[in-house]
Each structure stands twice: as C-alpha cells, then as structure tokens.
Specification:
Pfam families: MazE_antitoxin (PF04014), SpoVT_C (PF15714). Helix content is 31%, strand content 26%. It is built from five helices and nine strands; from the N terminus they run αββαββααβββββα. It is elongated and about 55 Å long.
C-alpha cells in the first residue's frame, strides 16, 4: 500500500478527514458512500462503494445478450468506471474510468444519443463514432449507465436509445430488489 505522508487525527465523534488530494485522485465526491474494511493485519481500508458492482456478473450477461442481439458494442458502468463490456476488447475498457462526456450522462440523469467521435474511457484510448447512453437510476440517484456504441459509421437512433433505457431500467429494478 502506498504511503501518502498525510496524518489525520480522529475527532471526538470518531471522524477523520480524508485529504482533498486523495479525494480528488480517487474521485470521491461529497456525500458519496464508502465501504470500510479491516484486513488481517488490522489496517482499515476505505473503498468507494459502487452498488451496481454487486450486479457485475449479471450486468456482463446483459451486455453479452444486447451485443448478440444488436451486433453493437455494449458497456455497463457504475458512476465512474466500466464494469461490463461486450463487443470491444475487455482488456481495453474493463475497470477504466468513464469519459467526461459519459460521466455527464450519469450525473444529468438523462439519456442521450452521441453522434460524433468521442471516447468511452477517461484515457481517450477507445474512440467510437456513435453511442446511445442511459443512466441507471435507483431511488432517484444515478448509480451508473448503459452504453450501446458503434465503432463504425452505423448511425444509432431512437431504437438503440430505447434499448439502453430498457436495460438501464431493468438493472435499476434489480438493484432496487437487492436493497
């Protein structure tokens, strides 16, 4: 584990402040839930809580099914990283951060069609031509997104957008059933 060189004291209420540099690096936002673990050596581990990651196997099966039916690439993401990929090399996208354009889909809670060259990941390595993206919303909170995309000139339209909406709604219902 990397040492950060930052020391914080626990206050009277048992709270500790996570330094701004670490929050920025780890993309931890105000009000975002964290999981707390204690490992065998007694170290306390804070991990960003991503509720949709509980459904990652299920999300992968759904992405595979959509890919088979449409012949288009499908990605399913939590609020800031891709957790399921089908139709594009998984090693290139799995666990990569979302591009800022796709992060905006999640935060805006609105489905969109993107009909220009854009990146799926925050590194800008995976460029695609068109995408239909729909946020996964549980209890009025956006927890991820379903992205149907094309690397070629295939135009995506209302059908792909509705399929992304349907997939997002279905995964949201599954998340609601788990809580």
């Amino acid at each position: 584990m990397k040492a950060t060189g930052v020391v914080r004291r626990i206050d009277d209420l048992g709270r500790v402040v996570i330094p701004k540099e670490i929050r920025r690096t780890m993309r931890i936002r105000n009000g975002e839930p964290l999981e707390i673990y204690v490992d065998r050596e007694g170290e306390v581990i804070l991990k960003k809580y991503a509720p949709i990651s509980e459904l990652s196997n299920y999300a992968q099966e759904y992405a595979d099914s959509l890919n088979e039916a449409l012949g288009l690439a499908v990605c399913i993401a939590d609020h800031d990283e891709i957790i399921a990929v089908s139709g594009i090399a998984k090693k290139d996208l799995l666990r990569k951060g979302l591009s800022s354009e796709l992060e905006e889909v999640v935060s805006s809670k609105k489905s969109i069609l993107i009909n220009h060259d854009h990146s799926l990941d925050n590194d800008g390595r995976i460029s695609v031509k068109n995408s239909a993206a729909s946020p996964i919303i549980v209890n009025n909170e956006a927890i991820g997104a379903v992205i149907i995309t094309s690397k070629d000139q295939t135009n995506l339209g209302d059908l792909e957008k509705k399929l992304a909406d349907t997939a997002a709604s279905f995964l949201a219902k599954q998340m609601g059933a788990k809580s």
